[in-house]
Design a protein that fits this description.
Length: 169
């Protein structure tokens, strides 16, 4: 999507919202859960609205939006570290598929709860949103090596959790 930087007008914002609201909500939900999703989405889009006038036209808007959404989610996680882990149970891709799929998704959700918010952010972007390591690094403002490291440790933690629960991958 190409933007003409006309000061972040209402039409421009509406187009950004229409094209990226599902992405923003998915990122926020996968990192923070659903309890505060509407408030976090609103906060994210306020930041996007305020930032549109300064958006560089040669930059990738999707990466910019991922970064704002992820930072909003991570900020919320840091402020609410004492919140119950049970409140964070994302809906995972793969929807329908019977009882076995539902059981598998439940096990994955429980395993994801063991990850730090930073690891969940990397998993969300690299696995659920299918960004490359480079794109995820750009969206998170991290070097590619840090993204790789977080993804590696998240996978290791998930593998350990699966093994402890008798799940073969």
């Amino acid at each position: 999507m190409t933007l003409k930087n006309n000061g972040g007008g209402q039409d421009q914002f509406q187009a950004v919202y229409d094209n990226h609201a599902p992405l923003v909500r998915a990122v926020l939900y996968n990192i923070c859960g659903g309890e505060h999703l509407d408030d976090l989405a609103q906060e994210t889009f306020i930041k996007i609205w305020k930032g549109l006038p300064g958006f560089r036209e040669n930059a990738n808007i999707k990466t910019w939006i991922y970064r704002i959404a992820t930072n909003t989610a991570l900020d919320w996680c840091r402020k609410n570290a004492a919140a119950k882990a049970e409140s964070w149970l994302p809906d995972l891709p793969g929807g329908e598929g019977g009882e076995t799929n539902a059981i598998n998704r439940d096990i994955v959700k429980k395993g994801l709860m063991r990850l730090s918010p930073e690891q969940r952010a990397v998993v969300t972007l690299c696995i659920f949103e299918e960004l490359t390591i480079k794109e995820a690094g750009s969206a998170l403002g991290l070097p590619e090596g840090t993204v790789k490291s977080r993804l590696h440790y998240a996978r290791a933690e998930m593998g350990k959790f699966f093994q402890e629960n008798g799940v073969t991958v």
